[in-house]
Amino acid sequence: MWVDENGDMRRKGSVRGDKAPQTYTKGEWPHDAVPQPDAPLPVHYSLTLARTLDDLCARRGLSHRALSLAAGIAPNAVGRIVRGELYPDLATLARLEAAAEEPIYPYRAYLTLRRLSE
Hints:
By secondary structure, the protein is mainly α. It has helices at 41-60, 64-71, 77-82, 90-100, 109-117, and strands at 2-3, 9-10, 25-26, 34-35.
């Protein structure tokens, strides 16, 4: 455990204690961003998810706001995910997949990351 700058207790390696995903990358989110070598695992998932959502919206001619509203989540949620400003929770992912009617979660991304680190 450690104490963050606000005096809150955090666990090392904890997503809740991590900064926004975009802060662990170089390049413009989501398509030109590259995670730093020491980026936490959730950053890689967030980046893959951001690219998937942005591509889905472009392919369907939807705004990020329209997808958010179709999913019944905050109107700015998809935009914030695509910009790497937050880590979405499981309920948000479920709503987005249901609204999109296609998979968006980066299934088995850890296997790709494992291969890259070997």
